[in-house]
Design a protein that fits this description.
Helix content is about 20%, strand content about 25%. The chain is α/β, with parallel strands linked by helices. The chain has six helices and twelve strands.
């Protein structure tokens, strides 16, 4: 199975003088936004891989919008429906989870995200986790990590948390699929990305240590997330005490070139999963087109 992991698209359509644009001036993290021409190139690249039979699924791990504006959701849907115009809740080709930029300032989940992305099911407060099976061996589990009000709204909503009811259902789902290759997809990072030092503890997923212990003990094989805009992977190798291997991967942002002295430009990951082994490759935007990065 081959999965394209796209994250932190940050479509921006809000104009005029408003508190969002003031925040852009004050906080560099809110300046990230994708050029719509680049977004068209991204969609074209994903369509090309799909048509060549080199891609089985597209996973988007949050922050599809920049300011939670209705027009931003509209643009996202118009663009990504070109890849798959079916019901995304049941789609075998496209999956998306919410990020902190996709939720409002109040409430326990992103109502506008659910209403736009899952219009026939958004009234279901217990929608997540969403489970998708591929063949007899692989299961993809989508988690909403945008948390509970008010804790999720600290530091402009960058703090993540999995609410208790969802987490209980998640653990039950993992137990039911104990013999399968299990992939968890969420927005917030459960590990502190190594380069990031300033206020790192205040933006990582809350209760991350407990979550990772539970995930490992229940045999999660792969955790995919975004949020930090910096490509990173961590592998827990088998030990004399446990034969299980768990991998955590953070995708870079497709909204702009990754900062902090890397050569990753508007990139996304492609994973090849075969015989419970994961191979990672990246496609980045170089010289006006997406290319494989070596």
């Amino acid at each position: 199975m081959r999965i394209a992991h796209v994250s932190d698209v940050h479509i921006h359509r809000r104009k005029g003088l408003n508190h969002y644009n003031i925040l852009y001036t004050l906080f560099n993290a809110f300046n990230t936004r994708i050029d719509l021409n680049l977004l068209d190139d991204l969609i074209s690249d994903l369509k090309t891989l799909k048509e060549k039979g080199e891609l089985d699924h597209v996973l988007i791990t949050g922050d599809i919008t920049n300011t939670y504006h209705s027009e931003e959701f509209k643009v996202f849907i118009e663009k990504f429906k070109q890849l798959d115009d079916s019901d995304w809740y049941e789609s075998k080709f496209l999956s998306v989870v919410p990020g902190n930029h996709d939720r409002g300032h109040f409430g326990n989940f992103s109502k506008k995200f659910l209403r736009r992305i899952y219009p026939d099911r958004f009234k279901n407060k217990d929608l997540h986790p969403i489970v998708k099976s591929f063949g007899n061996n692989i299961v993809l589990i989508l988690i909403d990590s945008t948390g509970e009000f008010p804790l999720s709204n600290l530091l402009l909503g960058s703090l993540g948390k999995i609410d208790r009811r969802q987490y209980k259902r998640l653990l039950e789902t993992l137990r039911r699929n104990k013999d399968k290759f299990k992939i968890l997809a969420l927005h917030h990072h459960p590990l502190i990305i190594p380069y990031y030092r300033r206020a790192a503890q205040l933006t990582v997923l809350r209760k991350a240590r407990k979550y990772l212990i539970d995930f490992y003990s229940l045999g999660v094989d792969l955790i995919l997330h975004g949020h930090r805009h910096y490509p990173f992977n961590w592998i827990h190798e088998p030990t004399p005490l446990s034969s299980h291997k768990m991998t955590v991967i953070c995708a870079s942002s497709v909204a702009r070139a990754t900062q902090h002295y890397t050569n990753i430009f508007n990139a996304y990951n492609v994973y090849h999963i075969e015989d419970n082994k994961v191979t990672i490759r990246q496609r980045g935007y170089i010289d006006g087109q997406y290319k494989w990065l070596e």
